[in-house]
Design a protein that fits this description.
InterPro entries: SAVED, TIR_dom, Toll_tir_struct_dom_sf. The chain is an alpha/beta fold and 614 residues long. The chain has 3 domains: 1-175, Rossmann fold (3-Layer(aba) Sandwich); 302-464, Rossmann fold, CATH 3.40.50; 471-578, no CATH class. Helix content is 26%, strand content 25%. It has 14 helices and 31 strands. The strands form 8 sheets. A 7-stranded mixed β-sheet has the order 14-16-15-17-18-19-20, sandwiched between helices. The chain has a 6-stranded mixed β-sheet with strand order 2-1-3-4-7-8. The protein has a 5-stranded mixed β-sheet with strand order 10-9-11-12-13. α4 packs parallel to α5 (78-93), α7 (157-173) crosses α8 (231-250) and α9 (264-273) packs parallel to α12. The longest helix is centred in the middle third of the chain and has 20 residues, at 231-250. It is globular, with a radius of gyration of 27 Å.
Length: 614
């Protein structure tokens, strides 16, 4: 493998599957969100003999490699026999200016003191009797390599990413006379190591390097339930995006060209990280994937606004502003009248204390069939965001919730004009319960704030509580007796039948099954939305059956804290209530690894929801 081929390749992840899979998944998401392309066996390995395929992948070209050190690495034969000898050889062959590095992400703590066990990689591999490899002059060849901690109390993923990003940009930018960086974005197809070569408008980017057309490739994975970018991918983007932008500035990048594909929130966040106050108008370009070459940007010589070849219509309604509480506006951005207004009304109804509601429609000239030329993008974005600022100024609202149905290209230009605003962005996704679509909250964008532009990422299900819970109302068909150390504390009687709320169900007869000679009728049941839901009331929480709490996804629904499957009679006796979180357990475990203290910033990842919010 030539070094020139290596610098173009992905970042190889070596790990023990038995207990290293979750760390590899986390690292994979983190690097992809930051624009770097990893190679991981479960995603990139084609059918065939494993050792041969991994060898071919390394020979084809990898730019760097990361060994994830976990306890079960001591039982691995494949890592010390196949992967590490080849990776150590590449590390030793690195040339000045074209370095290949084998790096270590270490999850092993030394003596429980919060310190990294730098001896663990060699010691664990030696327990298997296959380490050090034959012909190696060092007894502990891994100890001298650069190691990064991934411990319960200390995480250095940001530093690892920053070092890999610096290596990538150092190589790419040194070859660019025009100081332009190209970025490909995507959120829908699951990314692989080949993602860096993909894209329907790839031909518009091959002038730099036909074999490696994009300098950075930002990929977010989709949530399997909602279909919008996953919480893990968004938190990874939240942490890597500021580092990515700092890296661009640090390497003297003056222009950014983005192949703008994927969900609009991703492009909005990228635009917010590259505002017009930091990169001059016209220096950040979004290339439309539909037309391959159409470019959306701000024009340096914008004519007066009265020559705009578009119209922005605001349909605004106001309600009485709540006193002494945060106020919100809810805004729909749409092209002409194409968005789902019923779903938007549902979003507005889920937000307590909204003070303003607006439907913003953009339209092109009738004589051009409503078509808006990309050259109008800068003026159009400024017009829309000036309207947002006027809304804040005129009403005094604290935050704007945006259901965005505009193209990704335009969304990036809107992000560049978002300074000083507090925005919550929603995506059009599945609600995961009844199979219908709704607006799903994804991220809070606050350019200029510490940790921004993404200052908060929302879990899969997030509804907006209007205050702290001060009382509970029982809507369950059984009484609830709250006890503490066997002593009675409080009693809620069972709800009347007309107050019960359960998930709706649709049943359909299926073919009968048999138990020996006995026919067993079976029906198929499809769960629907929870019916007869109570209105939201400030300070009020509702006690409901477990299935109701799970199906409704409301943050004011609670259920008796007892094991799943426990029999519910006319009364349940518990010591507390429980509530479903917004995300799934697997994601929650991975997210904990991103909230440990980071030596780069001295605190946990910013913008994570608190336990009370979840």
């Amino acid at each position: 493998m030539a070094i020139d081929d290596a610098r173009k390749g992905p970042i190889f992840i070596s790990y023990r599957q038995a207990d290293g899979h979750k760390y590899a998944e986390l690292l994979d998401n983190y690097l992809r969100a930051g624009g770097l392309v990893p190679w991981r066996d479960l995603i990139d390995l084609p059918p065939g003999e494993t050792a041969q395929r991994v060898g071919e992948a390394i020979e084809e070209g990898i730019s760097n490699a990361i060994l994830i050190v976990t306890e079960d690495l001591k039982n691995s034969e494949f890592v010390p026999k196949v992967e590490l000898p080849a990776l150590l050889k590449l590390d030793a062959q690195g040339e000045p200016g074209k370095p290949f590095h084998l790096l270590i992400l270490n999850t092993r703590e030394k003596d429980g003191a919060g310190q990294l066990d730098v001896d663990a990689p060699d010691e664990l591999l030696a327990l298997g009797g296959l380490w050090p490899p034959a012909g190696c002059a060092k007894e502990r060849p891994l100890k001298d390599l650069k190691q990064y901690a991934l411990l319960p109390t200390r995480g250095e993923l940001r530093q690892l990413y920053a070092d890999l990003l610096d290596a990538r940009l150092s190589d790419r930018v040194s070859h660019l006379a025009d100081k332009e960086v190209t970025i490909q974005t995507q959120t829908r197809p699951a990314g692989t190591a080949r993602s860096r070569l993909s894209g329907v408008n790839r031909s518009a980017f091959t002038g730099k390097d036909a074999d490696d057309p994009y300098d950075l490739t930002v990929r977010l994975r989709q949530d399997p339930i909602t279909g919008v970018p996953s919480e893990l991918s968004m938190v990874s983007l939240q942490q890597t995006l500021p580092l990515l932008v700092d890296g661009l500035y640090g390497h003297g990048v003056e222009k950014v060209r983005v192949s703008a594909a994927g969900h609009p929130t991703l492009l909005w966040a990228i635009g917010a990280a590259l505002p017009t106050t930091r990169m001059r108008p016209g220096s950040v370009v979004a290339v439309d994937i539909d037309t391959h070459t159409t470019e959306w940007r701000e024009k340096l010589d914008d004519p007066a606004s009265d020559t705009n070849q578009f119209h922005v219509d605001w349909n605004l309604s106001m309600t009485e502003a709540p006193q002494d509480r945060k106020t919100r506006a809810v805004v729909l951005l749409q092209v002409e009248d194409r968005a789902n207004l019923k779903a938007f009304d549902g979003l507005a109804g889920s937000l307590p204390d909204y003070h303003a509601k607006a439907v913003v429609s953009i339209r092109g000239p009738k004589e051009r069939g409503g078509f808006i030329d990309s050259s109008e993008g800068g003026r159009l974005a400024k017009t829309i965001m000036d309207g947002m600022r006027k809304l804040v100024t005129d009403t005094g609202i604290d935050e704007i919730h945006i259901a965005n149905q505009l193209p990704a290209t335009l969304s990036m230009l809107l992000g560049r004009q978002s300074n000083t605003l507090n925005l919550v962005l929603y995506e059009w996704g599945m609600n995961g319960r009844a199979g219908n679509r709704e607006y799903v909250p994804l991220a809070r964008i606050q350019p200029g704030m510490p940790g921004g532009p993404i200052t908060e990422v929302f879990p899969r299900r997030r509804l907006w509580r209007s205050g702290e819970i001060t009382k509970f109302v029982n809507l369950a068909p059984y009484a609830v007796n709250l006890t503490r150390d066997g002593e009675h504390v409080h009693f809620w009687p069972a709800a009347a039948e007309d107050a019960w709320c359960f998930p709706a169900e649709q049943t359909e007869d299926a073919y009968p099954l048999a138990h020996g000679e006995v026919a067993v009728p079976v029906v198929q049941v499809a769960a629907g939305d929870v019916g007869k839901q109570p209105p939201r009331v400030d300070g009020t929480g509702y006690i409901v059956p477990r299935l109701t709490a799970k199906g409704a996804g409301r943050d004011d629904f609670f259920f008796p804290n007892q094991p799943a499957g426990a029999v519910e009679g006319p009364m349940v006796e518990v010591e507390g209530l429980a509530q479903y979180t917004g995300g799934d357990l697997h994601t929650s475990q991975l997210l904990k690894l991103l909230t440990t203290e980071c030596p780069m910033c001295g605190h946990a990842a910013g913008g994570m929801p608190t336990a009370q919010e979840v």
